[in-house]
Amino acid sequence: MAKIIEKKFATVKKSQKIAMGIGDLGYCLISSAFSTFFLFFGNVVMGIPGTLVGIAIACGTLWEAVAEPVLGYFTDNNKDRFFGRRHGFIILGIFFMAAANIFVWSIPQAWGIVSKFIYLIVGIILLESCHTLYATPSNALSIDISDDYNERSSIQSYKSVFYIAGMLLPALLLGYLQRPTDAFPDGRFNPQSYLNLAYLGSACVLIFGLFMILGTYSHVPRLIGNAQRNADEDKPPSGIKAIYKAFFTSIKNKNFRSIVLGYSISMMASTFLITLGFHTLTFTFKTTSTQMYLLIFLLFAMTILGQPLWLWISIKTEKKKALMVGLSTTLVGSGLLFLMFLFRAKINAILASNGFALIFMALPLMVCGLGIGVLFSLPLALVGDTVIMSKAETNKEKAGTYAGFMTLAYKGSQAIGQLIIGGLLDAIGFREGSYAQSPGVESALGWMFCIGVAVSIIGGILAFSKFSLKKEDVNAVMEKIQDA
Hints:
Strand content: under 5%
Number of domains: 1
Helix content: over 70%
Structural class: mainly alpha
Number of helices: 18
Distance between the termini: 11 Å
CATH class: Mainly Alpha
Protein backbone atom coordinates (compact mmCIF):
# COMPACT_ATOMS: atom_id res chain seq x y z
CA MET A 1 0.00 0.00 0.00
CA ALA A 2 1.42 3.39 -0.97
CA LYS A 3 2.37 5.59 1.93
CA ILE A 4 0.35 8.72 2.49
CA ILE A 5 1.90 11.34 4.71
CA GLU A 6 -1.25 13.02 6.06
CA LYS A 7 -1.38 12.26 9.78
CA LYS A 8 -4.23 14.37 11.06
CA PHE A 9 -7.85 14.31 10.20
CA ALA A 10 -9.15 17.66 9.05
CA THR A 11 -11.60 19.42 11.35
CA VAL A 12 -14.17 21.50 9.54
CA LYS A 13 -15.96 24.11 11.62
CA LYS A 14 -19.72 24.27 11.67
CA SER A 15 -19.60 27.74 10.11
CA GLN A 16 -17.54 26.35 7.23
CA LYS A 17 -20.01 23.51 6.65
CA ILE A 18 -22.74 26.16 6.53
CA ALA A 19 -20.66 28.20 4.07
CA MET A 20 -20.36 25.22 1.74
CA GLY A 21 -24.09 24.66 2.07
CA ILE A 22 -24.91 28.28 1.28
CA GLY A 23 -22.80 28.02 -1.89
CA ASP A 24 -24.89 25.03 -2.92
CA LEU A 25 -28.07 26.99 -2.14
CA GLY A 26 -27.32 29.52 -4.87
CA TYR A 27 -26.15 26.90 -7.35
CA CYS A 28 -29.17 24.68 -6.74
CA LEU A 29 -31.62 27.56 -7.03
CA ILE A 30 -30.49 27.90 -10.66
CA SER A 31 -30.03 24.22 -11.50
CA SER A 32 -33.28 23.16 -9.82
CA ALA A 33 -35.32 25.88 -11.53
CA PHE A 34 -33.96 24.55 -14.82
CA SER A 35 -34.46 20.85 -14.10
CA THR A 36 -37.90 21.33 -12.53
CA PHE A 37 -39.60 23.90 -14.71
CA PHE A 38 -37.75 24.13 -18.01
CA LEU A 39 -39.51 21.21 -19.69
CA PHE A 40 -42.89 22.75 -18.79
CA PHE A 41 -41.66 26.21 -19.80
CA GLY A 42 -40.33 25.08 -23.18
CA ASN A 43 -43.15 22.66 -23.94
CA VAL A 44 -46.27 24.37 -22.57
CA VAL A 45 -45.33 28.06 -22.34
CA MET A 46 -43.08 28.37 -25.42
CA GLY A 47 -44.91 25.78 -27.52
CA ILE A 48 -41.87 23.64 -28.39
CA PRO A 49 -42.55 19.89 -28.82
CA GLY A 50 -41.49 17.87 -25.77
CA THR A 51 -39.16 15.66 -27.82
CA LEU A 52 -37.21 18.69 -29.08
CA VAL A 53 -36.87 20.10 -25.55
CA GLY A 54 -35.62 16.69 -24.37
CA ILE A 55 -33.13 16.49 -27.25
CA ALA A 56 -31.80 19.97 -26.45
CA ILE A 57 -31.29 18.97 -22.81
CA ALA A 58 -29.59 15.75 -23.92
CA CYS A 59 -27.22 17.76 -26.14
CA GLY A 60 -26.13 19.70 -23.06
CA THR A 61 -25.37 16.44 -21.27
CA LEU A 62 -23.43 15.04 -24.25
CA TRP A 63 -21.32 18.17 -24.20
CA GLU A 64 -20.70 17.64 -20.48
CA ALA A 65 -19.51 14.10 -21.23
CA VAL A 66 -16.87 15.68 -23.48
CA ALA A 67 -15.89 18.54 -21.15
CA GLU A 68 -16.16 16.83 -17.73
CA PRO A 69 -13.03 14.61 -17.97
CA VAL A 70 -10.88 17.62 -18.85
CA LEU A 71 -12.32 19.69 -15.99
CA GLY A 72 -11.94 16.79 -13.54
CA TYR A 73 -8.30 16.42 -14.60
CA PHE A 74 -7.49 20.11 -14.20
CA THR A 75 -9.23 20.47 -10.82
CA ASP A 76 -7.27 17.48 -9.47
CA ASN A 77 -3.93 18.65 -10.85
CA ASN A 78 -4.27 22.43 -10.53
CA LYS A 79 -1.41 23.89 -8.46
CA ASP A 80 -2.49 27.49 -8.13
CA ARG A 81 -0.70 28.95 -5.10
CA PHE A 82 -3.44 31.43 -4.32
CA PHE A 83 -6.71 29.57 -4.99
CA GLY A 84 -5.54 25.96 -4.59
CA ARG A 85 -7.02 23.17 -6.70
CA ARG A 86 -10.70 24.05 -6.38
CA HIS A 87 -11.51 27.66 -5.49
CA GLY A 88 -10.43 29.30 -8.74
CA PHE A 89 -12.74 27.09 -10.79
CA ILE A 90 -15.60 27.72 -8.36
CA ILE A 91 -15.23 31.51 -8.76
CA LEU A 92 -15.34 31.24 -12.56
CA GLY A 93 -18.38 28.96 -12.31
CA ILE A 94 -20.25 31.48 -10.16
CA PHE A 95 -19.93 34.41 -12.58
CA PHE A 96 -20.44 32.49 -15.83
CA MET A 97 -23.41 30.58 -14.42
CA ALA A 98 -25.16 33.81 -13.42
CA ALA A 99 -24.94 35.11 -17.01
CA ALA A 100 -25.83 31.82 -18.76
CA ASN A 101 -28.88 31.36 -16.53
CA ILE A 102 -30.46 34.60 -17.72
CA PHE A 103 -29.66 33.77 -21.34
CA VAL A 104 -31.35 30.35 -21.36
CA TRP A 105 -34.67 31.71 -20.01
CA SER A 106 -34.75 34.58 -22.52
CA ILE A 107 -36.11 32.62 -25.50
CA PRO A 108 -37.76 35.04 -27.97
CA GLN A 109 -41.38 33.95 -27.96
CA ALA A 110 -42.05 35.27 -31.48
CA TRP A 111 -39.42 32.99 -33.06
CA GLY A 112 -40.33 29.83 -34.94
CA ILE A 113 -39.89 26.35 -33.50
CA VAL A 114 -36.62 25.65 -35.36
CA SER A 115 -35.06 28.93 -34.22
CA LYS A 116 -36.21 28.32 -30.64
CA PHE A 117 -34.77 24.81 -30.77
CA ILE A 118 -31.34 26.09 -31.89
CA TYR A 119 -31.47 28.77 -29.19
CA LEU A 120 -32.27 26.06 -26.64
CA ILE A 121 -29.28 23.94 -27.63
CA VAL A 122 -26.84 26.85 -27.41
CA GLY A 123 -28.27 28.15 -24.12
CA ILE A 124 -28.43 24.74 -22.45
CA ILE A 125 -24.85 23.86 -23.44
CA LEU A 126 -23.65 27.16 -21.97
CA LEU A 127 -25.64 26.72 -18.76
CA GLU A 128 -24.69 23.07 -18.22
CA SER A 129 -21.01 23.91 -18.79
CA CYS A 130 -21.21 26.58 -16.10
CA HIS A 131 -23.07 24.21 -13.76
CA THR A 132 -20.22 21.73 -14.10
CA LEU A 133 -17.58 24.43 -13.67
CA TYR A 134 -19.05 25.10 -10.23
CA ALA A 135 -20.38 21.70 -9.13
CA THR A 136 -17.37 19.47 -9.84
CA PRO A 137 -14.74 21.45 -7.86
CA SER A 138 -17.29 22.29 -5.15
CA ASN A 139 -18.16 18.61 -4.61
CA ALA A 140 -14.48 17.66 -4.74
CA LEU A 141 -13.71 20.29 -2.10
CA SER A 142 -16.37 18.83 0.20
CA ILE A 143 -14.68 15.44 -0.17
CA ASP A 144 -11.01 16.32 0.34
CA ILE A 145 -11.57 18.98 3.01
CA SER A 146 -11.89 16.18 5.63
CA ASP A 147 -10.56 12.63 6.06
CA ASP A 148 -12.93 11.65 8.87
CA TYR A 149 -15.60 9.02 8.07
CA ASN A 150 -18.47 10.62 9.99
CA GLU A 151 -17.41 14.21 9.34
CA ARG A 152 -17.72 13.63 5.60
CA SER A 153 -21.30 12.48 6.16
CA SER A 154 -21.93 15.54 8.32
CA ILE A 155 -20.56 17.87 5.64
CA GLN A 156 -22.77 16.31 2.98
CA SER A 157 -25.75 16.51 5.33
CA TYR A 158 -25.22 20.26 5.81
CA LYS A 159 -24.77 20.73 2.09
CA SER A 160 -27.86 18.69 1.28
CA VAL A 161 -30.08 20.78 3.58
CA PHE A 162 -29.12 23.95 1.74
CA TYR A 163 -29.16 22.16 -1.62
CA ILE A 164 -32.72 20.99 -1.06
CA ALA A 165 -33.67 24.46 0.18
CA GLY A 166 -32.37 25.66 -3.18
CA MET A 167 -34.72 23.16 -4.82
CA LEU A 168 -37.59 24.51 -2.75
CA LEU A 169 -36.99 28.23 -3.37
CA PRO A 170 -37.89 28.26 -7.10
CA ALA A 171 -41.32 26.85 -6.31
CA LEU A 172 -41.90 29.43 -3.58
CA LEU A 173 -40.63 32.28 -5.73
CA LEU A 174 -42.66 31.22 -8.75
CA GLY A 175 -45.73 30.89 -6.55
CA TYR A 176 -45.30 34.59 -5.81
CA LEU A 177 -44.17 35.69 -9.28
CA GLN A 178 -46.96 33.86 -11.10
CA ARG A 179 -49.84 35.87 -9.74
CA PRO A 180 -52.84 36.11 -12.09
CA THR A 181 -52.97 38.96 -14.60
CA ASP A 182 -55.49 39.99 -17.23
CA ALA A 183 -53.29 38.45 -19.93
CA PHE A 184 -52.52 35.31 -17.89
CA PRO A 185 -55.30 34.32 -15.46
CA ASP A 186 -53.16 31.27 -14.62
CA GLY A 187 -49.70 32.68 -13.93
CA ARG A 188 -48.01 29.36 -14.73
CA PHE A 189 -48.36 30.25 -18.43
CA ASN A 190 -46.71 33.69 -18.12
CA PRO A 191 -43.19 33.58 -19.70
CA GLN A 192 -42.03 36.75 -17.92
CA SER A 193 -42.41 35.04 -14.52
CA TYR A 194 -39.72 32.51 -15.44
CA LEU A 195 -37.33 35.22 -16.62
CA ASN A 196 -37.88 37.15 -13.37
CA LEU A 197 -37.00 33.97 -11.48
CA ALA A 198 -33.79 33.76 -13.53
CA TYR A 199 -32.82 37.31 -12.50
CA LEU A 200 -33.31 36.43 -8.83
CA GLY A 201 -31.43 33.13 -9.18
CA SER A 202 -28.42 34.78 -10.82
CA ALA A 203 -28.23 37.41 -8.09
CA CYS A 204 -28.37 34.70 -5.41
CA VAL A 205 -25.67 32.54 -7.00
CA LEU A 206 -23.28 35.52 -7.05
CA ILE A 207 -23.92 36.50 -3.42
CA PHE A 208 -24.05 32.99 -1.94
CA GLY A 209 -21.14 31.70 -4.04
CA LEU A 210 -18.82 34.44 -2.89
CA PHE A 211 -19.90 33.76 0.71
CA MET A 212 -18.87 30.13 0.23
CA ILE A 213 -15.46 31.15 -1.17
CA LEU A 214 -14.74 33.44 1.77
CA GLY A 215 -16.01 30.91 4.31
CA THR A 216 -13.78 28.04 3.14
CA TYR A 217 -10.70 29.89 1.88
CA SER A 218 -8.82 29.34 5.16
CA HIS A 219 -8.47 25.65 4.22
CA VAL A 220 -6.65 26.43 0.97
CA PRO A 221 -3.08 26.55 2.43
CA ARG A 222 -3.57 23.20 4.17
CA LEU A 223 -5.05 21.57 1.08
CA ILE A 224 -2.20 22.91 -1.07
CA GLY A 225 0.29 21.46 1.42
CA ASN A 226 -1.45 18.08 1.40
CA ALA A 227 -1.44 18.02 -2.39
CA GLN A 228 2.28 18.76 -2.47
CA ARG A 229 3.15 16.14 0.17
CA ASN A 230 0.98 13.45 -1.42
CA ALA A 231 2.02 14.15 -5.00
CA ASP A 232 2.67 10.94 -6.86
CA GLU A 233 6.21 10.44 -8.16
CA ASP A 234 4.80 9.68 -11.60
CA LYS A 235 3.61 12.56 -13.72
CA PRO A 236 -0.16 12.89 -14.15
CA PRO A 237 -1.52 11.81 -17.53
CA SER A 238 -0.91 14.32 -20.30
CA GLY A 239 -2.73 14.66 -23.56
CA ILE A 240 -6.45 14.49 -24.24
CA LYS A 241 -6.50 10.74 -24.86
CA ALA A 242 -4.72 9.99 -21.57
CA ILE A 243 -7.01 12.35 -19.66
CA TYR A 244 -10.16 10.65 -21.01
CA LYS A 245 -8.69 7.23 -20.31
CA ALA A 246 -7.88 8.16 -16.71
CA PHE A 247 -11.38 9.62 -16.24
CA PHE A 248 -13.39 6.71 -17.57
CA THR A 249 -11.18 3.98 -16.06
CA SER A 250 -12.29 5.25 -12.64
CA ILE A 251 -15.56 3.42 -13.28
CA LYS A 252 -13.61 0.13 -13.05
CA ASN A 253 -13.66 0.56 -9.28
CA LYS A 254 -16.50 -1.80 -8.30
CA ASN A 255 -17.78 0.26 -5.39
CA PHE A 256 -17.62 3.51 -7.30
CA ARG A 257 -19.41 1.90 -10.24
CA SER A 258 -22.19 0.81 -7.90
CA ILE A 259 -22.57 4.37 -6.58
CA VAL A 260 -22.63 5.92 -10.05
CA LEU A 261 -25.20 3.47 -11.43
CA GLY A 262 -27.39 3.57 -8.33
CA TYR A 263 -27.25 7.36 -8.19
CA SER A 264 -27.98 7.80 -11.89
CA ILE A 265 -30.94 5.44 -11.94
CA SER A 266 -32.56 6.44 -8.67
CA MET A 267 -32.17 10.19 -9.35
CA MET A 268 -34.40 9.71 -12.40
CA ALA A 269 -37.16 9.18 -9.85
CA SER A 270 -36.76 12.80 -8.78
CA THR A 271 -37.01 13.87 -12.43
CA PHE A 272 -40.31 12.02 -12.82
CA LEU A 273 -41.51 13.16 -9.41
CA ILE A 274 -40.70 16.83 -9.80
CA THR A 275 -40.47 17.64 -13.53
CA LEU A 276 -43.36 15.46 -14.70
CA GLY A 277 -45.15 16.28 -11.45
CA PHE A 278 -45.56 19.84 -12.71
CA HIS A 279 -47.51 18.52 -15.73
CA THR A 280 -49.43 15.90 -13.70
CA LEU A 281 -50.54 18.20 -10.90
CA THR A 282 -51.61 20.83 -13.42
CA PHE A 283 -53.56 18.66 -15.85
CA THR A 284 -54.33 15.28 -14.19
CA PHE A 285 -55.17 16.48 -10.69
CA LYS A 286 -56.29 19.93 -11.83
CA THR A 287 -54.74 21.73 -8.89
CA THR A 288 -54.71 25.49 -8.77
CA SER A 289 -51.37 27.28 -8.90
CA THR A 290 -51.44 27.83 -5.12
CA GLN A 291 -52.32 24.19 -4.40
CA MET A 292 -49.59 22.90 -6.71
CA TYR A 293 -46.86 25.04 -5.19
CA LEU A 294 -48.01 24.08 -1.69
CA LEU A 295 -47.65 20.39 -2.62
CA ILE A 296 -44.18 20.99 -4.07
CA PHE A 297 -43.24 22.90 -0.91
CA LEU A 298 -44.29 19.96 1.29
CA LEU A 299 -42.36 17.54 -0.93
CA PHE A 300 -39.13 19.51 -0.62
CA ALA A 301 -39.71 20.31 3.06
CA MET A 302 -39.72 16.60 3.85
CA THR A 303 -36.44 16.06 2.00
CA ILE A 304 -34.88 18.64 4.34
CA LEU A 305 -36.53 17.38 7.52
CA GLY A 306 -35.35 13.84 6.77
CA GLN A 307 -31.64 14.74 6.63
CA PRO A 308 -30.95 14.31 10.39
CA LEU A 309 -32.64 10.88 10.23
CA TRP A 310 -30.43 9.60 7.40
CA LEU A 311 -27.31 11.02 9.07
CA TRP A 312 -28.25 9.35 12.38
CA ILE A 313 -28.86 5.96 10.72
CA SER A 314 -25.58 6.20 8.79
CA ILE A 315 -23.62 6.95 11.98
CA LYS A 316 -25.33 4.23 14.01
CA THR A 317 -25.08 1.59 11.28
CA GLU A 318 -23.73 2.07 7.75
CA LYS A 319 -24.21 4.67 5.05
CA LYS A 320 -25.38 1.97 2.66
CA LYS A 321 -28.08 0.83 5.09
CA ALA A 322 -29.35 4.38 5.54
CA LEU A 323 -29.41 4.75 1.76
CA MET A 324 -31.43 1.56 1.31
CA VAL A 325 -33.93 2.57 4.02
CA GLY A 326 -34.41 5.94 2.31
CA LEU A 327 -34.97 4.42 -1.13
CA SER A 328 -37.40 1.85 0.32
CA THR A 329 -39.34 4.72 1.90
CA THR A 330 -39.60 6.37 -1.51
CA LEU A 331 -40.86 3.08 -2.97
CA VAL A 332 -43.63 3.01 -0.36
CA GLY A 333 -44.46 6.60 -1.29
CA SER A 334 -44.69 5.64 -4.98
CA GLY A 335 -47.27 3.00 -4.04
CA LEU A 336 -49.30 5.67 -2.25
CA LEU A 337 -48.97 7.90 -5.31
CA PHE A 338 -50.49 5.14 -7.40
CA LEU A 339 -53.46 4.89 -5.04
CA MET A 340 -53.84 8.65 -5.19
CA PHE A 341 -53.92 8.41 -8.98
CA LEU A 342 -56.48 5.60 -9.04
CA PHE A 343 -58.85 7.54 -6.78
CA ARG A 344 -58.12 10.94 -8.36
CA ALA A 345 -61.75 11.45 -9.46
CA LYS A 346 -63.01 11.30 -5.88
CA ILE A 347 -60.09 13.36 -4.59
CA ASN A 348 -60.62 16.02 -7.27
CA ALA A 349 -64.35 16.15 -6.51
CA ILE A 350 -63.72 16.58 -2.77
CA LEU A 351 -60.93 19.06 -3.48
CA ALA A 352 -63.28 21.22 -5.53
CA SER A 353 -65.60 21.62 -2.54
CA ASN A 354 -63.19 21.30 0.37
CA GLY A 355 -59.57 22.45 0.16
CA PHE A 356 -58.68 20.28 3.17
CA ALA A 357 -58.77 17.26 0.86
CA LEU A 358 -55.36 18.43 -0.38
CA ILE A 359 -53.93 16.40 2.52
CA PHE A 360 -54.79 13.20 0.60
CA MET A 361 -52.47 14.33 -2.18
CA ALA A 362 -49.85 15.74 0.17
CA LEU A 363 -49.18 12.56 2.19
CA PRO A 364 -47.82 10.39 -0.67
CA LEU A 365 -45.64 13.25 -1.91
CA MET A 366 -44.32 13.87 1.60
CA VAL A 367 -43.38 10.19 2.02
CA CYS A 368 -41.59 10.27 -1.34
CA GLY A 369 -39.84 13.49 -0.34
CA LEU A 370 -38.67 12.02 2.96
CA GLY A 371 -37.14 9.01 1.25
CA ILE A 372 -35.65 10.66 -1.80
CA GLY A 373 -33.83 13.16 0.39
CA VAL A 374 -31.28 10.46 1.15
CA LEU A 375 -29.96 10.81 -2.42
CA PHE A 376 -28.85 14.37 -1.79
CA SER A 377 -26.33 13.51 0.93
CA LEU A 378 -25.24 9.90 1.27
CA PRO A 379 -24.12 8.94 -2.28
CA LEU A 380 -21.47 11.69 -2.30
CA ALA A 381 -20.45 10.70 1.24
CA LEU A 382 -19.93 7.14 -0.07
CA VAL A 383 -17.80 8.60 -2.86
CA GLY A 384 -15.63 10.26 -0.20
CA ASP A 385 -15.01 6.86 1.39
CA THR A 386 -14.17 5.39 -2.01
CA VAL A 387 -11.72 8.23 -2.68
CA ILE A 388 -9.94 7.50 0.61
CA MET A 389 -9.55 3.82 -0.28
CA SER A 390 -8.40 4.65 -3.79
CA LYS A 391 -5.84 7.16 -2.53
CA ALA A 392 -4.49 4.63 -0.03
CA GLU A 393 -4.00 2.07 -2.82
CA THR A 394 -2.63 4.31 -5.58
CA ASN A 395 -1.42 7.49 -3.82
CA LYS A 396 -3.24 9.47 -6.51
CA GLU A 397 -5.68 12.32 -5.92
CA LYS A 398 -8.98 11.51 -7.62
CA ALA A 399 -11.54 13.53 -5.67
CA GLY A 400 -12.10 15.85 -8.63
CA THR A 401 -12.37 12.97 -11.07
CA TYR A 402 -14.83 11.06 -8.90
CA ALA A 403 -16.87 14.19 -8.11
CA GLY A 404 -16.89 15.02 -11.82
CA PHE A 405 -18.24 11.59 -12.64
CA MET A 406 -21.00 12.09 -10.06
CA THR A 407 -21.87 15.48 -11.57
CA LEU A 408 -22.02 13.84 -14.99
CA ALA A 409 -24.14 10.99 -13.58
CA TYR A 410 -26.61 13.43 -12.05
CA LYS A 411 -26.89 15.57 -15.15
CA GLY A 412 -27.04 12.48 -17.35
CA SER A 413 -29.89 10.98 -15.35
CA GLN A 414 -31.79 14.27 -15.56
CA ALA A 415 -31.22 14.53 -19.30
CA ILE A 416 -32.23 10.93 -19.97
CA GLY A 417 -35.28 11.30 -17.74
CA GLN A 418 -36.38 14.51 -19.44
CA LEU A 419 -35.70 13.05 -22.89
CA ILE A 420 -37.89 10.06 -22.00
CA ILE A 421 -40.58 12.34 -20.58
CA GLY A 422 -40.45 14.64 -23.60
CA GLY A 423 -40.78 11.72 -25.99
CA LEU A 424 -43.65 10.22 -24.00
CA LEU A 425 -45.47 13.56 -23.92
CA ASP A 426 -45.44 13.64 -27.70
CA ALA A 427 -46.35 9.94 -27.89
CA ILE A 428 -49.49 10.34 -25.74
CA GLY A 429 -50.63 13.34 -27.79
CA PHE A 430 -49.85 16.11 -25.30
CA ARG A 431 -50.70 19.45 -26.93
CA GLU A 432 -47.80 21.84 -26.39
CA GLY A 433 -48.82 25.42 -25.69
CA SER A 434 -52.34 24.34 -24.69
CA TYR A 435 -54.03 25.18 -21.40
CA ALA A 436 -56.18 22.01 -21.50
CA GLN A 437 -55.60 18.35 -22.38
CA SER A 438 -57.85 15.45 -23.35
CA PRO A 439 -58.98 12.94 -20.68
CA GLY A 440 -56.76 10.28 -22.29
CA VAL A 441 -53.70 12.51 -21.98
CA GLU A 442 -54.56 13.39 -18.38
CA SER A 443 -54.75 9.69 -17.52
CA ALA A 444 -51.53 8.85 -19.38
CA LEU A 445 -49.67 11.56 -17.45
CA GLY A 446 -50.66 9.86 -14.18
CA TRP A 447 -49.45 6.44 -15.34
CA MET A 448 -46.13 7.92 -16.48
CA PHE A 449 -45.78 9.73 -13.18
CA CYS A 450 -46.35 6.70 -10.91
CA ILE A 451 -44.54 4.05 -12.96
CA GLY A 452 -41.54 6.28 -13.65
CA VAL A 453 -40.89 6.91 -9.94
CA ALA A 454 -41.31 3.25 -8.92
CA VAL A 455 -39.14 1.76 -11.70
CA SER A 456 -36.33 4.27 -11.08
CA ILE A 457 -36.22 3.54 -7.35
CA ILE A 458 -36.23 -0.24 -7.84
CA GLY A 459 -33.35 0.07 -10.32
CA GLY A 460 -31.42 2.25 -7.89
CA ILE A 461 -31.86 -0.22 -5.03
CA LEU A 462 -30.54 -3.07 -7.20
CA ALA A 463 -27.48 -1.04 -8.26
CA PHE A 464 -26.62 0.24 -4.77
CA SER A 465 -26.89 -3.31 -3.40
CA LYS A 466 -23.55 -4.09 -5.11
CA PHE A 467 -21.68 -1.59 -2.90
CA SER A 468 -19.53 -3.56 -0.45
CA LEU A 469 -17.29 -1.04 1.34
CA LYS A 470 -17.80 -1.14 5.13
CA LYS A 471 -17.24 1.47 7.82
CA GLU A 472 -14.56 -0.67 9.46
CA ASP A 473 -12.69 -0.91 6.14
CA VAL A 474 -12.44 2.86 5.84
CA ASN A 475 -11.55 3.37 9.51
CA ALA A 476 -8.82 0.72 9.31
CA VAL A 477 -7.20 2.53 6.40
CA MET A 478 -7.48 5.88 8.16
CA GLU A 479 -5.81 4.46 11.28
CA LYS A 480 -2.88 3.29 9.14
CA ILE A 481 -2.68 6.76 7.58
CA GLN A 482 -2.77 8.38 11.01
CA ASP A 483 0.03 6.12 12.28
CA ALA A 484 2.19 6.57 9.18
